[in-house]
Amino acid sequence: MLKTRGYAAEAATTPLAPFDFDRREPGAHDVLIEILYCGVCHSDIHQARNEWENSIYPMVPGHEIVGRVARVGAEVTRFKEGDLAGVGCFVESCRTCENCKEGEEQHCLTHLVATYNGTERDEQTPTYGGYSNQIVVDENYTLKIPSNLPPENVAPLLCAGITTYSPLRRFNVGAGQRVGVVGLGGLGHMGVKLAASMGAEVTVFSTSQSKEEDARRLGAHHFVVTKDPQNLEPLAGKFHFILDTVSATHDLNMYLNLLRRDGTMVLVGAPEKPSEVPAFSLITNNRKLAGSMIGGIRETQEMLDYCAERNVSSDVEVIPIQQINEAYERTIKGDVRYRFVIDMKSL
Amino acid sequence: MLKTRGYAAEAATTPLAPFDFDRREPGAHDVLIEILYCGVCHSDIHQARNEWENSIYPMVPGHEIVGRVARVGAEVTRFKEGDLAGVGCFVESCRTCENCKEGEEQHCLTHLVATYNGTERDEQTPTYGGYSNQIVVDENYTLKIPSNLPPENVAPLLCAGITTYSPLRRFNVGAGQRVGVVGLGGLGHMGVKLAASMGAEVTVFSTSQSKEEDARRLGAHHFVVTKDPQNLEPLAGKFHFILDTVSATHDLNMYLNLLRRDGTMVLVGAPEKPSEVPAFSLITNNRKLAGSMIGGIRETQEMLDYCAERNVSSDVEVIPIQQINEAYERTIKGDVRYRFVIDMKSL
After folding, report:
1. Rounded to whole angstroms, how far apart are CA atoms A12 and A26?
2. Full-model pTM
3. A84: which of A122, A225, B39, B178 lies 20 to 30 Å off by Cα?
4. Same domain, A9 and A139
5. Domain span holding position A83
């Protein structure tokens, strides 16, 4: 076994603290990755604190992982020692269900092995995430990381990037389209960058006037403060696509009304409580309300290659791991522009 | 002006009664249609009783109209005296907005002229519907009615038919797909017939066991009684498409959970109260919840031609107009298999 250092939550109510654990020796198809950076996703906090009521402790969070390959198994063909490599939200799946076969492993019908707070395919061995110095992953679930982008800015692409890229692609967002992005946080700022890079005319909807300058710097063409619903009235029926990244409970109908005929609003944040949706808001203009969850390995690689080509990556604040608990508090307050990334040298 | 006989509601609380009124003389582009049959849509009742709070009285309802051309204007090219002709939910639109130009007049951005309970393009002259002996409509808003189907069975296609056909087409329903139809009323029975005719494997979801025999006769392959939610559990994640035709408030989430990856549920009924939709139900499997409203003239003609070719039409109970108030009460109770159609000879 490989002695590994990390940070873990021992229970829902304890702060993250240093934690030593073992990882498996790399098998024939495995890659051993020395972790350079790991992003801090809001879902790390939900799970560390058992807010989704499915937590396994001790928990080493982290699923926005970028590192360097330190060793490869005998059968590995896609990676070699020294390569940059990435790991996202899952590290295995059944490989045999229809979703896995179609390259949509994130919807595996049998057993998606989450990068942390999950179990390996044996349904017993817990998985530990990227707040650690190394990780062992099958090469088929490992991403190639472009070398032309700073790796700390790439890390958040593995969750925030693919979560926003996938629906933008699935609904064919592009030039000539008006796209709204609701909320300017970790997901929202990637939504703005990606939608703008695809040629869309982007409007950011935010409760906070203070984010206008950032929104425009990130690529938004318009900025609407949503505290006053009157600001939205002239925009009714104008949008082809709206990406809703807000995970606090909020009024969806206000945004549905902005969609034009055949327009789509996609939820990538998951408010705790159900939202009230009037049928008339969907029937008018044949609107669609959809959900979207990360992406498969193939699409995640496509997104990384796209970002490399367009020079798109995340705006980050790099922190030493010793500041992780403070970073959690600031993330909850929305006080981060726009993603904390842990520099694993600090471990 | 043309002296016209019909039945009208004089107020929200009065029964429908005989009513004489004038229609315009046919203009150069108009068709005068002698009405043979008019379907009774649930929305006729909502509007006659001002349940949508937008009623104009006196109101002559009816937007599922089939008749015979009695006269044509000088410039009319598509119809001649003696042709069968149909009129659906609208009789004019602005013709210049982007939706009209794209043949989606039902979503006209300026002024959709409803067949009844609306105003002409002058925004003053009230429109009167199909519970009458004749109607005058521009030929561009008049449908060709196939002659190989009984006209009384065709009438409901003008609303119930297109309302179900349009979303089935838009979401590419076809062979190899599992399709659910929620509710077996006027819309639902057309949904079953059309989805089955397109090659889908159709499951009807109904609160009433008594409809199983009918459902299977209409083309359904499976029938699920929804009073016991346990009946739905084994079907989770199985459906490509669900057409929800129920306009009473009901639990959407129960059906959303039946959708497989990238599956879509379309609402064509409009419950009065908003429905609670949990984001997780949409994010899981990248599901879509959509709405759909009738269809444009081009698609309505396509639907009529499709039905003629496949020998698909509505199951109806033909009534004399003197029974309209009783028919309303029976429609409200769901006591009709599956659409009342008024034989206008009775007028």
Report:
1. 31
2. 0.96
3. A122
4. yes
5. 2-159+315-346
